[in-house]
Design goal:
5 helices; single chain; 238 residues; 9-stranded mixed beta sheet; binds S-adenosylmethionine; Rossmann fold; alpha/beta
Length: 238
Amino acid sequence: MLTHASTPIPPFDRLIAAIAAVLPDHVRIGDAALFLGDSSLVLEILRTQIDALISDPPYGIAYVPGAGAQHKFAGVAIAGDDRPFDPRPLLGLAPITCLWGANHYASRLPDSPGWLVWDKRIGKLRTHQADGELAWTNSRRPARVKNLLWSGAARTGERGEHWHPTQKSTAIMAWCMKELGVPRGAVVADPYMGSGTTGLACLKTGRRFIGIELERRWFDAACERLALWQDQGDLFLS
Ligand SMILES: C[S@@+](CC[C@H](N)C(=O)[O-])C[C@H]1O[C@@H](n2cnc3c(N)ncnc32)[C@H](O)[C@@H]1O
């Protein structure tokens, strides 16, 4: 009698299936899988199954963007930002971890030499908000600084692309993965995905991505953004 050996399921697909068993609302776009729901429900599924956790969580600062009527996201609050953020459940899930905005919750993180600094200024001019952003990492490498203008509408790259009130620069997310030695083909998770900037940086640089977002509005934005990239490629490299 002939027997058919079953085709083994690749580990990335197995991981996606395991997350989907808890958060069924999800979309697959190329090498990315985007999930709608509360990431705290699936963190333990990620443990040891991902190569890097690169995220920009709510900072716990109750930030509400500009009161100006012309501001696209005026008055839109960030889910979870109204209470102190506790990063501890994210630690140790992956060999490489990078958490943006960590100056706001540094007291709940271990000491690290490997902070990353995003200097958002033009030259030495002060910006109208913070001059920069800090990321805690578990790297033992020395601290590094990258200068890339990002202040309101004044941006290096991605001008006019406003997908989320606290949107990061895709180039900065790619930079931090490079600095931390996240290899091509690695599986990167962002459990606070927002509009999918980490995911876009992964697709652009040949890494695989798992993103999780609580709010339908930002989940839909991430799906649209990554699908646009997947369909068209980056015609305007910045
Ligand atoms: C600082 S924003 C991330 C913005 C993102 N870096 C971007 O460029 O678009 C944090 C995101 O985490 C989401 N969030 C908050 N609590 C969450 C949770 N428990 N599970 C998944 N997402 C959550 C918020 O809705 C928000 O979109």
